[in-house]
TrEMBL record:
The keyword Transport applies. This is Transporter. It is found in: Membrane. It is a multi-pass membrane protein. The chain crosses the membrane at residues 12-30, 42-64, 92-115, 149-167, 179-207, 219-243, 255-281, 301-334, 346-367, 387-408, 429-447, 453-470. PANTHER family: TRANSPORTER.
């Protein structure tokens, strides 16, 4: 489409995609979910999904973005027309927009916690503090809806400013420094953990694969996390793919992103669990895991206030480069479809996500129990939103895989992939069958376990829907 920018550098997409992928998902969510789900078994499912399903779908998603060169919703609309498939495939874009909105709502609240800790570190408030003091400090933050709302507001407003002014495409140079710096400082924390913590126990916990340790819902969480961490299945990668230069290699980019993303998660996990076991903390302490263990290390480390301050600034940077990729697909859609200006589009998306984020804020205090979410789904609003994204992202990915695998023609795919026929055939096999089968398998496996009737019904409906859609696709393929 005319007017749609293309990034001039071949490497820009890679940087932007790494920026989107690496974020709170690696540093905060991966360790805490691993801890709650018994360690190795969770990692096994997570890693298998990344490599067998995530990478091929990543390629598919960038491919859809790059061939359509539009925002996900408009891009899918365009592709359903040019490929004479059912318009229902446009739901890939809509589902993605819903997922982006939900994720942004809680992402910003958690990033707000990092803002709080940046402040605590830089002011030296935690120097020398012990585990009890640090846990109590974290609990105090959670108990304060006012403070959490303040940080949430600051973080989302700042992200909005970047996307609204259209400068997010220019933050490459920042990322080029920040990403290696983040990795380096994680290594510092890991070394500290090896010396002062218990890296043996951590490695044992993370890499002993006993699949029986994993609850049924743990399967869904592990799969959801692998989509979450790669920013997959909700349009972010498609939106970025739309700006990707035609020369860049889809396959190499996807592998590089998955590799960097996994490496960061693993180093973060090892470092955090070394500290957890060293200090005798609980592995399953939930969303607070990173925010309690890391400050404990910084409290005690030489120059800890400074190292900790820099660390949390880098966490914030990683979170911002992810949150802008959550705003982009929806904002780009509003601009293309309703002729809004960028600032208008961003404001609408962000104000709505901000309001939704208040649900996450209160899930940790005034609405920590006894709400309608607890009555219906046996979980807090925040946990329910997380559950939805664990479903939406793999489902979106499944549909992306089916569409790219069945609707795009061989010559189109070959043109985008730019590789030999063997890899084309392998990739197509993966997105036509392997990915969809794996995702359906986890959905079906999980359904009886997740309480209530809403999730099973949703799940069954969705699977039937996807099947029906793929039948219609096949006719025209
Ligand atoms: N991948 C990001 C992270 O790990 C989160 C994200 C999900 C960003 C989906 C964009 C889209 O923090």
């Amino acid at each position: 489409m005319s007017g749609h920018n293309v990034w001039t550098h071949k490497g820009t997409f890679l940087l932007a995609a790494v920026g989107s992928a690496v974020g709170l998902g690696n540093l905060w969510r991966f360790p805490y979910l691993t801890g709650e789900n018994g360690g190795g078994a969770f990692i096994l499912i997570y890693a298998l999904t990344i490599f067998a399903v995530g990478i091929p779908i990543f390629i598919a998603e960038t491919m859809l973005g790059r061939t359509s060169r539009q925002s996900p919703i408009m891009g899918m609309r365009h592709l359903t027309k040019t490929h004479k498939t059912s318009r229902a495939w446009e739901s890939i874009g809509w589902l993605g927009a819903a997922a982006a909105f939900l994720i942004l709502s809680f992402y910003s609240v958690i990033a707000g916690w990092a803002l709080h800790y940046t402040w605590l570190m830089l002011t030296g408030s935690l120097v020398g503090a012990d585990a009890t003091t640090i846990s109590a400090g974290f609990d105090a933050l959670l108990a304060s809806p006012g403070l959490m709302t303040l940080y949430h507001t600051l973080f989302i407003a700042f992200s909005a400013l970047i996307v609204g002014l259209g400068i997010h495409k220019g933050i490459e140079s920042g990322l080029r420094i920040m990403m290696p710096a983040l990795f380096a400082i994680l290594i510092v924390v890991l070394i500290y953990g090896v010396i002062n913590g218990d890296v043996g126990a951590a490695a044992n916990f993370l890499f002993t694969f006993n699949i029986a340790d994993l609850s049924l819902e743990g399967w869904l969480q592990a799969m959801g996390q692998s989509f979450f961490t790669l920013s997959l299945g909700m349009g972010a990668i498609m939106a970025y793919g739309a700006y990707m230069s035609s020369e860049a290699s889809l396959t190499r980019t996807a592998i590089a992103v998955a590799f960097v993303d996994t490496a960061i998660a693993m180093v973060a996990g090892l470092a955090i669990f070394s500290l957890v076991f060293g200090a005798g903390l609980e592995t399953d302490q939930g969303p607070g895991l990173m925010f309690v263990t890391l400050p404990l290390a910084f409290a005690d480390m030489p120059f800890g206030a400074l190292v900790g301050g820099v660390f949390f600034i880098l966490v914030l940077g990683a979170a911002i480069s992810s949150s802008i990729s959550l705003i982009e697909p929806v904002a780009a859609f509003l601009v293309e479809r309703f002729d809004m200006t960028r600032p208008q589009a961003v404001t609408i998306m962000v104000v709505a996500a901000w309001a939704m984020g208040l649900l996450t804020v209160v899930s940790f205090n005034v609405w920590a129990e006894g709400t309608i979410f607890h009555a219906l789904f046996e979980r807090s609003a925040f946990e329910f939103i997380e559950l939805l994204t664990n479903i939406f992202m793999p489902l979106g990915g499944l549909m992306i895989a089916l569409f790219a695998g069945w609707a795009l023609t061989q010559s189109e795919v070959m043109k985008e992939l730019g590789t030999n026929i063997t890899w084309f055939k392998t990739w197509r096999l993966l997105v036509r069958f392997v990915g969809p089968a794996a995702v359906s398998f986890v959905f079906l496996r999980t359904i009886p376990q997740v309480e209530g009737y809403v999730v099973p019904t949703l799940g069954a409906l969705l699977i039937v829907g996807v099947f029906a859609l793929s039948q219609r696709l096949r006719k025209s393929a």
